[in-house]
Structure formats: structure tokens, C-alpha cells
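FORM 7B - TANDEM STRUCTURE REPORT

SECTION 1: FIRST PROTEIN
SEQUENCE AND C-ALPHA CELLS:
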Amino acid sequence: MLTRTRTLVAPAHLVRTESPIGRLEIGSDGEAVTYLAIERQGALPWQELPENPVPVLDTAVEQLGEYFAGARRSFDVPVRLVGTPFQLSIWQALQELPFGGYTSYGALGLLTGRATAGRAVGGAVGSNPVPLLVPCHRVLASNNRITGYSGGNGIPTKRWLLSHEGIEAA
């Protein structure tokens, strides 16, 4: 489900789990995943808060574990995204990218009717509140180069995810 308002408050429900790219912190409103962070320099954004699991978070942890084990190629856990109409259009397009597939920032701009909005597309991709579940790591520069990644430890994290999916980047 995609909505238009944005909140910067702590998630109502929160769990943490280990992964090959670092600890993951996953948040929910009780019905859908609303937040996912990848550990950066040993820290998570809400690490001072206690865990407060709900079934949707248990499902997310299970599906992410299967993804990292190579047994899952898509996610069907409910996700609720909050952002501007432009961000929502970019995140919707990202959700349609299959495991092992990729696109470019320029192609996303064309797809959403803003062919010259490369910087805005990059900003929307980088502000994705649920990386991995909404696969922003599958976006490369037009020359197949990795130009950045806002999750985890940046480019090394993105390179690991791309390699895990068999995507070769320059």
C-alpha cells in the first residue's frame, strides 16, 4: 500500500536480526513493514529502543533470512511506504524489478515521465524507507556503475547485494 504522508517517529513495533550485510532493524505499524535499516558503522537508528515484535515483522525476518540464504527471490510481506507522489512512483517502479534484474536512474526517470530528473530520481531511490524489500540496490548508473548506496556501509553493501543476485556492475 502506498500513502502520501510522512512521519519521522519511531516505529510502533521493532525487531532486529543478523544478516550477511550487518544487523537489520525492521519497523512496523502493526500491519505492514514501514521501515528497514542496515547497520552502519556498528549502529542502528533506533538501537536504544527495545524490540516489540508483531507477526508481520516475524514474517519479514523469515523472508529476509530466506533471501540471504538464496531460497527466496521476491518478498510478499506487506509494506507501507510514505513519501511524496514522485517518491512513491519511483518506489513502485523499484518493486517491479525482479531478482537479478536492474535498471538505471535515467530509465526510472523515463518510466515515471521525468526523463531529465536524474538527481530527483537518485534522491527518491536513496530515501527508500524499506531497502531490500523495495530493491533500491538494483539501480545503477547508465554505464552499469555503482554510484552510491545509502544503506549499510554504502557501496560495499550494494556490491554484495548485487553479487548475491548475480548482477554484474562496473
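SECTION 2: SECOND PROTEIN
SEQUENCE AND C-ALPHA CELLS:
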Amino acid sequence: MPTRRQIQVKSASIADNLRSTHELDAKDMAVGRLAAAIATLLMGKHKPEFQSHIDCGDYVVVKNAGKLKFTGKKLVQKDYYHHTMHPGGIVRTPLAHVFATDPGEVIRKAVNGMLPKNKHREVRMARLTINS
């Protein structure tokens, strides 16, 4: 049986990992498909050394967020909900209003929903930059 010194385990670590920057153009892209591509890059699933418990994702810069394309009737029908934790405190905000105010927030909410709900989520979202 091999001893501990004879076994060499190779695992990805933050020090070994070199983060690169990806620039994506959001012009005429569907929101969901763009968000899925961004989430994959932020998690690092495109890399051969991907491990789910290690954050090895890259930086992502999104350009032309105001020129997104919405399929179907999403711009009219989709709503974002938030509860104030008071009785009767549900707040409904239409997608059209959020997109008119800050187009980057629509992408940010979509990507945030596609990332795993764990301790790496906020760190990964901090590597996302959205330019209108």
C-alpha cells in the first residue's frame, strides 16, 4: 500500500488558476441564452480543470446591454416580485420598467438565478461587469 508521500494529488487551486477576461456583445441576443453563457464563464465550467467546490471562473464584461432582444411577450408579461416582509408587502415591478431604468439589472438578475446557491455566488457575481 502506498504511503502518503508517494501519492500525488493534483487539484486546481486559486493560486494555480489564471483568470482571463471575456467580452460579450449583448446586441440582439436573447436574455436567457446570454445569461447561460455568462454563468458558464463565471463558474469556470468551460475549463478542463473545473471542480464544483473550487471557484475557478473568469471575469466577464458585457457590452450593449440596452440592445437585448426579448422573445415572445416577456417585455410586457414578465414581472419581478419582492416582498418587504410586512403584511401585504409584495411589490411587483414589470420587466419593461426595470429594462428602461437599468438594462444591466435584467442581465444581473438572470445570471444570479442561474448560478448555484452557495458561498461562491456573490464572489462570482462581483466578477461580472455590465456596460450599457
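SECTION 3: OBSERVATIONS ON SECOND PROTEIN
The radius of gyration is 19 Å.
The chain has five helices and five strands.

SECTION 4: SIGNATURE
Preparer initials: ____
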